[in-house]
């Protein structure tokens, strides 16, 4: 059993692309956890998708050892994602640590996620070590960035450690700061076992592999354990640590991080945030676990042409075990049959889940356009929450529709304030305040309806600031608005998956823009296909996809004109019958067309 006073648990947090994964790679090499010849970039990122996109999606952990002043220390590090959509992964990683390394790019300075992650660590009561990274860049200004961090977050500039994860400069000073400033974990090795399940992964041969942080007690191979939420018992067959590759050990004790394999075949028995204890003696109560994630974006997944609904359900269950921050519930659509309504933390999270479903489970998915959830106040006084426009109650029973509102922090160059304010006004933003971080950089705070920001707001922000703008947001509640349901009718039939809830002032413009887009996305059929946008019973816009035409008189040479007329009448009658029974094929791109905000 390792001396608990020599254990340090910490995570690396930062804004996206500030060097978290590179620093983790450098630590692995410096501690000889990975030989230089075996090293590759983003070593801990084990998904192909992470390497292709160049971002961390899942928090990854590694146990390394470092000698300091004649004693060997165990350092358990967690490399976390930087994108705002994976904020929940960061909070879960922090629950398994006593300290964090707050990385800041010495060239870019404090960014939106830097501030958000710093406050998250402060709320969790963790020791924060500010690390100014990339000091080898020609445009680096480490002292200025340290002062900027002190001004925004309140962490003294003289506590900052200056490093270059790429070259290894400053790494000895960083190890010293970790060992001296991050407190050792608490916990009693002789108390009843309490181990927090902070992640899990299904394995075809060994069952569910649980990643745990032991809070109290100790766990040995062969022990019989109890999953407190599922009330199921299992026998531990394997215990190990990530060093960074899995390495079997005989036991893990209070303060340590590792994984256990106990032949758990039922996915539903494992819940992220659950507590594992011994069957005898048992712990009196479970650990607090995690705060449930706040899903912000919803869309429907339906099985594609080569996939059945049970296959899609099985794939979602396996993925949910590894990423419990998304949800899924059965749903039925007249146009698309049986599927699942899924909730996500953001638009990038939704894209990642769809990509992982198709890659890891080899299934085909049809996805509808994402929406947000709304609170509906009925005239009876009852308040209901809906996550799809198709669930909106009849208009005669609705008193008001409340939309989700976020508080957004936009960090932009000072000379781009005017352009950003114009974009914010177009998206119904309410200005709150302005704070100068430096003469060249400013933080604008706005309140936005979430629905106005989920599609291309971030892209427009980047374009208006030449790529230097960043954004972070938090959900603040629901507010009543002048909102209406915009229905889309294809060939006279409402398509639930294309319905949206919009502000009344934008409804007509949005409806016209939407059906214009749909006309280009839906292929021509052998009959005219009318497209209509309607609010209630009132049609506000219409487009028609003209029928494919065939020259049925091409082989009719000469003769009486009645011969041609007879052929044309026959074609006309055939198209009339076809229109009565014909089904319009709607491609995937048409469902995504509803995302177009119609600003132009």
Low-confidence runs: 578-582
Strand content: 25-35%
Q: What is the radius of gyration computed over CA atoms, rounded to a whole number of angstroms?
A: 28 Å
What is the number of strand segments? 31
Structural class, from helix and strand content? Answer: alpha+beta
What is the CATH architecture term of the largest domain? 3-Layer(aba) Sandwich
> What characteristic shape results from the CA principal axes?
globular
Number of domains: 5
Report the span from N to C terminus.
Answer: 65 Å
Report the sheet with the most strands, covering strand number, pairing sense and barrel closure.
8 strands, antiparallel
For CATH, the homologous superfamily of the largest domain is named as: P-loop containing nucleotide triphosphate hydrolases
Number of helices: 13
CATH fold group of the largest domain: Rossmann fold
CATH class of the largest domain, anyone? Alpha Beta
> Could you report the average pLDDT, rounded to the nearest whole number?
84
Q: Can you list the strand order of the major beta sheet?
A: 11-10-16-7-8-15-12-13
